[in-house]
Amino acid sequence: MDLSLLSQLNAGRAARRAAILVTNMTDGSQRLIKQNVAYRNDLLAEEFDKRFLSGKSGLVKTDAGEAFLTVSVPAPRLVLIGAVHISQALVPMAEIAGFNVSVIDPRTAFATEDRFPGSSLLAEWPEDVLRDQPFDPYTAVAAVTHDPKIDDYPLMEALKTGCFYVGALGSKKTHGKRLERFREAGLSVDVMSRIEAPIGLDIGAASPQEIAVAVLASVIKALRKPGGVPA
What we know:
This protein is of the alpha/beta class. The protein has eight helices and ten strands.
């Protein structure tokens, strides 16, 4: 493998950026395709889109012969803002589904090891956490505290960063007030429309456990299906 390509691939992995190494099986030549870098005119553009979504490597046929696509996609993260009952139910389910899960809540009465054993629990303000652990496009963010002082900042950061899923708990009235605050902060209508509120797939969920199922379903849909993020 070309050392310059290997260096680029490793740097991308460290920065949680997705890429595909294309190896021509006829002559052994290689090239690196980076997500969100123009490749629309490439003959394999549709295949690249599919592989970035699935995360699966494999052999494909091209007009120039066969090529092997080595797909490097960051592990998806789910960041829960709020150490509430919904989060308690959601953490183990999301971990089983393959997500790296973090729970952020500065309220130490809620953010306790007893309530979240073995999870990545951060009893800090989101602003402080995000300085060292910023969001990225392979992060889903679900804000469930009902407290604007805690929820607003990470939600706006998630929208600015392009997180693949952004959801927020709250009624239509609560969300309307949230949008007013975000508009005053300079966010556009198009950007704000990416927030799923009410949060979670509409399955008639009522209990915290059922809402957790609905949220996880929405997160997986946004990750795996083109256009899965609310428009």
